[in-house]
Amino acid sequence: MHRHTLTNLILVVVLFALGVLAWMRPGIEAPREPFTLTEYNFDALQSIRAEKNGQLVYQLEKIDGNWRLIAPDAAAADPAEVEQLINKTKLTSKNRYSVSEVNLAELGFAEPFMKLVIDDQELLVGNNESISQRRYVKSGDWVYLVDSLAIFSLDRDPDMFLPEPTADNEPDNN
Q1: For residue 47, what are the β-bridge partners?
Q2: CA distance 61 to 88
Q3: SS3 at position 49
Q4: Residue 106's pLDDT is what?
Q5: Which of 26, 89, 160, 161 has the fewest CB atoms in 10 Å of its CB?
């Protein structure tokens, strides 16, 4: 074998080894699936209650298959708005911590910004995380970091659940 052929053969083996190494990506973990805080079957839900800074903002209940706003005032609720709210509560996070690993008061859970109770599941919304402006959300035995925009979409005025006025349900002002 000529010296150049041997050198080329060694280079091919080295390149092949580097290609295999790059393909295997040692030390690089595959991205993990985000953690799911909540998953609901819309048809099975019966109640939703939201509190902000300790005060009741709204309470919705399904009565005879129809969603009703129970508080602050009683009225029929727009099912599309309720479904949209429930879809927005299907939160995910790439980070979670056991409640035993964190100081709950430091994260804002002593006086949560918001509390959302969907059937029997309670979501507490704590402080903003300072670096990425995500919010701490406690669900069960876990604390998650959730995008602040997702939390903002849960902070609703009760009037948003009322159906749009139509000719059939407008008050008669005559």
Answers
A1: 61
A2: 18
A3: strand
A4: 92
A5: 26
Helix (H, G, I), strand (E, B) or coil at 14: helix
Sign of CA dihedral 118, 121, 127, 130: negative
pLDDT, one tens digit per residue, over 14-55 is 888 877 767 666 665 555 678 887 777 777 889 989 898 888
The pLDDT score that the predictor gives to residue 29 is: 57
- For 115-144, b/e burial (b = at least 16 CB within 10 A) is bbebeeeebbbbebeeeeebbbbbbeebbb
Beta strands in the chain (DSSP E): 35-36, 47-52, 55-63, 66-71, 75-76, 92-93, 96-98, 114-118, 121-128, 134-139, 142-147
The pair of three-digit structure tokens given for residue 125, joined into one six-digit string? 């919304």
Q: Which residue has the higher pLDDT, 54 or 171?
A: 54
Percent of the chain surpassing pLDDT 90: 15
Higher pLDDT, 22 or 88: 88
